[in-house]
Amino acid sequence: MAEKRKFTIPIGPQHPALKEPESFSVALKGEKILGVEIKLGYNHRGLEKACESRTFIQDIYLIERICGICSHSHSTCFIQAVEEIAGLQIPARANYIRTLVGELERVHSHLLWLGVAGHEIGFDTLLMYSWRDREVVMDVLAELTGNRVNYGINTIGGVRRDISEEQIKETAKAIDILEERTKYYVEVAQQETTIIKRLSGVGVLKHDDALRLGAVGPTARASNIARDIRKDDPYAAYAELDFKVITDNHEDIYGRTVVRLLELMESYKIIRQVLEKLPAGDICVKAPRKIPAGEALSRYEAPRGEDMHYVKANGTEKPDRVKVRAPTLANVQSVKTMLQDRNLADMPIVIAAIDPCFSCTDRMTQVTDLADNSRQVWDWEKLRSHGIEWYRQRGVDFTALNNKLKQRL
Amino acid sequence: MIKELFYLLIFPGFLFISAFALAGEYIDRKLYARFQNRVGPPWFQPLADLIKLLAKEDIVPCDANANMFKLVPVFALTAAVASIIYIPLWQSSSIYSFPGDVIVVLYLLTIPTLCFFMGGWYSTSLFARIGSVRTLTQLFAYEVPLFMSILSAAVLADSWSIKDIVNFYNSHPGYLLFNGIGFVVSMIALLGKLEKTPFDIPEAETEIVAGSFTEYSGRLLAIFRLTLDIEMVVGAALISAIFIPFGLNFSPVPAFIITVIKIELVIAMLSLARTIFARLRIDQMVNFCWKYVVPLALTQLLINFLIKGFFR
Amino acid sequence: MINPGKMLKEVLCSLFRKPVTVLYPHVKMEMPVGFRGAIKFSPDKCSGCKLCMRDCPTNAITINKVGEKQFECEIDLGKCIYCGQCVDSCFKKALEVTRDMELAQAGKNKGKLKVTHR
């Protein structure tokens, strides 16, 4: 308030508002944000490259670990591409189970987001309640797939686990509880004054801006863009299911909250239909170990938006190239527009409102040399030699380990 | 001399008020947890936190003014401890009661806030500076209604001394009913003073890390945390003495027990408020205070003037 | 419609409800049936095809031949990601998942499970 000078504060890479390392340099005048510079690349893990040195079956589990929340989205997206290259026809039951897990994942992701949003605006009670209720769907997922987070239900040619009658009943019961709770949260979000005060009119992304910046998922749908891969390019069992694409014309964070909460209600509808219609039959077809040469692009509506995987196979057990475009990459640019001339206090919730997943997004690391301020992107070999040298200086030598690894492979 | 030292250092001074403050923090945290359907901390958690912080290293930023940085927490603690001397705990009179002590308590309660500002300012970190500026902005928003609401009760009692105010309301309990607005206003202002949600703007952790306290660690942070707890207890004690003064005219032991219960009740109300609201923005907070809370406090003042003119 | 303090009722109800927090590890937690925990190896069923080794995403499992039709299995719990792919790959059903999830160890080498033929 008092200061007239312009100054820049670093939000990240380490900051309590961000759950993952990513840097936002914010130029401030008093409390007003003059501009934001987004720097990605603090969490680059080289997953795409790592995929090339593993077989397709091993890649499923690696791809699944791109994101901790939408793990099923990434693995399904990857597997769809592989199945397309191999020309596999997936049994109907497998498609339904994939849809079921995908929607349960959406439920858990949106409830998680609601809690995070509550925390960012200082409403920890909402965080505690929504995460408590999220446990219900986590338990269902653990029951159905065997894991709470990285489900590992997908395999090339279908799914790995079948669903029993009893599990269907249990899931339906859990969905009833969740639906009731979600109705309550819709009420809270639409009525609690302090929430509305903090959310409405904040992080505005106009319809045209959303189109121009290529926003996806709930971020776009809150700006009244009816874009949903489940509807536009149906995969799995979505073509046979009845559901609505939720849009909202608030164009702000309040709209995004409402879209996510109402999407939860749609998800419950989808899950009920899946449980009812679940066709009988096999859950998996036999897939070849060596995928024939070819390439495919696959799209999937992850909870955060459109996820895209490109896979190129060369006739061996290992892929030639895997490219992942995570939804956050499409959304992160819009943060800049949303924050222009806004209040510093809106910063955390605006970033959180796109439901960012930065480690899914990072594809490269830019190295700035402090001596001459030059910037460069390192390639694989240089990064590798730098890593080896860095550890050697600190007394760790990987040469012996490397040789051992080579022998085993 | 020994008696004075006993008052200052042991009861109701530093030792007692620190223990009471930690108990207050426990009640606050436990209730907060139970409201959120959690288990919450065990009874010794605030004490354990304090001891842990006391055992840690003090880090002073290179650019900070080291003397100010270290002195400011002590100032804040001294002011907060000193204010308990003028609060009645087991009789209607406090130890050193004098005409005008209600104003002194209000001023002593302002000093910690100013110390938070100075501590944040002298630590020269960007987050701390933004936090300290917010502290000061917020101070101007809640201090006026707090003073007006407390003083309007004093106007009706026709005295500037807590002792006389307590005695007046105990002999004329009917008048308390008119102070309802003042009670609500002072509770809102106390939330702002203690920097609790929805007014925890100066230390909003998701925005500016910890506000003024960002650079503080170890013993200095422990002192600041203790100060906030003591401020909470003293503020709650002041509000309960002025707006719910019952029981203070009993014999010392029951009066003391009733006072403690009343203070815990006020603390419980504060933690309920911080459970059910989201944090406001600083502009919304200032707007809210000047648009709604100040007019309410003015209405209270007007009501009390009218009652005083017509009925007394 | 706006309603300040919308959660008040819910919050006050919670005060008189039992907290949902589970005081793990004082209270034991049961994982659902079919949970993918530690991998169990049955040496008498293993044929030594090493398909599990080939499919393991993290090279956590090693099968060694110790004698005629006798194999030992070593699983590095620090590397294992509990995906259960080795169980799916095994034709002889020599591997199976258990619900055991309390696998934390103090020390890197203690996390290696070795099962040999008795």
Q: What would a concise description of this structure say?
A:
The complex is a heterotrimer of chains A (409), B (312) and C (118). By secondary structure, chain B is mainly α. Chain B is built from 12 helices and no strands.
Task: Give a verbal description of the structure.
The complex is a heterotrimer of chains A (409), B (312) and C (118). With 409 residues, chain A is of the alpha+beta class. In chain A, 50% of the residues lie in helices and 14% in strands. Chain A contains 16 helices and ten strands. In chain A, helix 2 (56-64) runs antiparallel to helix 3 (71-86) and helix 4 runs antiparallel to helix 13. Chain A starts with 5 loop residues before the first strand and ends with a helix. The mean pLDDT of chain A is 86. Chain B is an all-alpha fold and 312 residues long. Chain B has one domain (15-311). In chain B, helix 2 (14-35) crosses helix 10, helix 5 (101-122) runs antiparallel to helix 10 and helix 6 packs parallel to helix 12 (282-311). The relative contact order of chain B is 0.16. Chain C has a single domain (30-115), classed as 2-Layer Sandwich (Alpha-Beta Plaits), CATH 3.30.70. Chain C contains three helices and five strands, in the order H-E-H-E-E-H-E-E. In chain C, the strands form two sheets. Chain C has a three-stranded antiparallel beta sheet with strand order 2-3-5, with no helix packed on it. A two-stranded antiparallel sheet of chain C has the order 1-4. The chains are: A alpha+beta (409), B mainly alpha (312), C alpha+beta (118). Chain A binds chain B through residues 1-3, 7, 9, 15-17, 28, 31, 118-126, 128-129, 132, 192, 194-195, 197-198, 343-348, and chain B through 35-38, 126-127, 129-130, 133-134, 136-137, 197-198, 200-201, 204-209, 275-284.
